[in-house]
Amino acid sequence: MGDLGRTRILAGAAALVAVGAGLGVRALGGGDVGKYAGDALYTVLVVALVVLVVPRVRPVVAAGVGLGFSWGVEFFQLTGGPAAMAAHSGLARLVFGTTFNAPDLFWYAVGAVAGWAGHRAVRAKGRGQSLATTG
User: Fold this and answer.
1) Which of 59, 76, 130, 134 has the fewest CB atoms within 10 Å distance of its CB?
2) pTM for the whole thing?
């Protein structure tokens, strides 16, 4: 299997783990810990999906897209659209949330950094390099 296939498999696995962990932490953790861990994992999921679709993407670009998407969804909540969709669909509630919460923006950034670090580590290992020599 080539590097692209390996990258896609790992990105798909990371996406599944992020979904499972996000749902689990929200269900079991509760409170602020569960909420904000779920926010970070949401962005990790988006970063993993970006890598799954575009396996050659640089880690910083994948993280930037993940962060931009997550922030875009959060600001979209200011319109009331996500709350209206969530009233009719549990899936829409999971994907778009319902209400704007400024601290979420920070936790999305935490998730983007985690996604960047994970993708960077996978790329370095695939190339046989140390993290100190990769960008």
Assistant:
1) 130
2) 0.88
**What letter represents residue 78's amino acid?**
L
Helix/strand/coil (H/E/C) assignment for every residue in 117-135: HHHHHHHHHHHCCCHHHCC
State how far the Cα of 32 lies from the Cα of 93, in Å rounded to an integer. 18
Q: What is the pLDDT of residues 3-47, one digit of tens each?
A: 888 899 999 999 999 999 988 998 887 788 888 999 999 999 999
71 near 107, Cβ under 8 Å? no
Domain spans, the chain: 3-127
DSSP state of 74: H
